[in-house]
Amino acid sequence: MAEALCEDGVHSTPVPGLTLYRWSETSSPRHGVYRPSLCVVAQGEKQVWLGQQVLTYNSATYLISSIHVPAQSRVSRASAAQPYLALRIEFDPQEWLDLFEGGALGREDEVEPEAGLWVARMEEHLLDAIARYVDLVRHPEDVPYLAPLWRREIFYRVIRGEGGQRWARLLAAAGQANPAHRAVRYLAEHFRDHVRIDDLAALVNMSPSTLHRHFKALTHMTPIQYQKRLRLLEARRLLLGGAQSVTEAALSVGYESVSQFTREYARLFGLPPSKDVERLRLAP
Fold first, then answer.
1. Rounded to whole angstroms, how far apart are CA atoms 260 and 250?
2. In order of start, what are the domains of the chain with their CATH numbers?
3. Which of 166, 178, 196, 259 is most buried by its number of CB atoms within 10 A?
């Protein structure tokens, strides 16, 4: 992996869902959105804040996000001599459900909801499957034939390992995707829209109070807080792109009041939109 990462930055690859990362220094906490993905650190260490919970992962562990979830993160161990090296494999949760439904992996009855982002211990068989998947970067001609096989093996190894019981509790409820997961996914896709909690609860066949409890367990946010965070992060991305004014960005992500947008933006990022974007552009 180190051979493929000669320069710092985010590196896309021809392997489905695989992104590689290299950083030669630690970073301050940064806001972002974790998509459904498996995150692995080959060298160095990373910290993720989900609400008040701090998740730390390194070469001995891995992190899984089963949902789209806003969080803060930072590279907590890196240097020029030993840079932070990591990878992310994005997935559709349905890929995992297919394995559960294939039998032999078992199911668990519904239990109390848990966070949709967690860390588990890395195991030898899983690491070997991941290494073969990453090695396809050097052999793009093999990707159409081997990537689907090794990708499926990676998911299988996770399910059979320490993280598998968590997946069973989160995803294998009555043979269907967890209703709270569906609610999170719906809001992630419709955060710009006006969504009533009662309507969202009815959509996933839950009572509003049950939805609120399960949603907060998964994301450490209420549905309204989750929607607001996605709106603000998307607006920040649009402003950094330079193609939209503050008013245009606010309206495009679903705000009806620009003054409310400016207040909530400053509350999250520490500065009003224009000053925050200027600070980010001047940062090294």
1. 9
2. 2-92+114-163 (2.60.120), 175-224 (1.10.10), 234-282 (1.10.10.60)
3. 178
Fill in the DSSP letter of residue 191: T
Q: Reduce the DSSP state of residue 122 to 3 states and report it.
A: coil
How far apart, in whole angstroms, are the C-alpha atoms of residue 58 and residue 47? 9
The Cα–Cα gap between 34 and 55 comes to 13
Strands (E) in 1-139, as ranges, are 9-12, 18-23, 30-34, 37-43, 45-50, 53-58, 61-65, 69-77, 84-90, 117-121
Tokens of 134: 């990453």
Phi, psi of 236, rounded to the nearest 5 degrees? -60, -40
Token pair belonging to 55:
């998740």
Query: What radius of gyration, in Å, describes the C-alpha atoms of the chain?
Result: 20
CA dihedral 112, 117, 123, 127 (to 10 degrees): 150
Q: How do the pLDDT tens digits run along the chain, 284 residues long?
A: 666 678 999 999 999 999 999 999 999 999 999 999 999 999 999 999 998 899 999 999 999 998 899 999 999 999 999 999 999 999 987 787 777 665 544 544 445 667 889 999 999 999 999 999 999 999 999 999 999 999 999 998 998 887 777 776 666 543 355 788 889 999 999 999 999 999 999 999 999 999 999 999 999 999 999 999 999 999 999 999 987 999 999 999 999 999 999 999 999 999 999 999 999 988 76
Contact 49, 72 (CB under 8 A): yes
